[in-house]
Write a structure and sequence with these properties.
alpha/beta, 7 helices, about 10% strand
Length: about 140
């Protein structure tokens, strides 16, 4: 896989599409704008990204919980139908390796799963707002 391809973490889509129920502070407003800009570049075909079915499931669950089912379906369909997004399956073995990484590095299992998939594909950059976990894994956050 090309080094220009980046991994897309689920939180980017959540920040981009979920409308907060209360006032947004300046930090959150900047994150939301950055997330929307990333999605605009992906939608225009300027960026190619990879994610997994697990991360799409996270997107669906969080958006359904914070917004509603209709919005969750709309976002998931958009991801699945995008020519700029490759959604990869994961295996039991991927999850076994991810649990080992999670235990060793003290990161969440699904962040470790993203890392495992990235390393297998030679992807070194990720779109995410979870800086703490991915920085500790040595992944470049863009």
């Amino acid at each position: 896989m090309s080094s220009s391809v980046r991994f897309l973490d689920s939180n980017v889509l959540v920040y981009a599409v979920v409308k907060p129920k209360k006032n947004v502070d300046e930090r959150l407003a900047k994150i939301k704008e950055r997330a929307r800009e990333i999605l605009r570049r992906i939608d225009r075909g300027e960026e190619r990204v990879v994610t997994t079915v697990v991360h799409v499931s996270e997107i669906a669950n969080v958006i359904e919980s914070l917004a509603n089912l209709t919005k969750a379906i709309e976002v998931v369909e958009s991801v699945l139908n995008s020519e700029s997004v490759t959604v990869l399956d994961v295996t039991k073995e991927d999850y076994i390796e991810a649990t080992l990484v999670a235990r060793e590095r003290g990161v969440s299992v699904n962040d470790a799963l993203a890392y495992v998939v990235m390393m297998r594909l030679g992807i070194r950059e990720i779109y995410t707002f979870d800086e703490r976990h991915f920085t500790s894994l040595g992944v470049k956050i863009v």
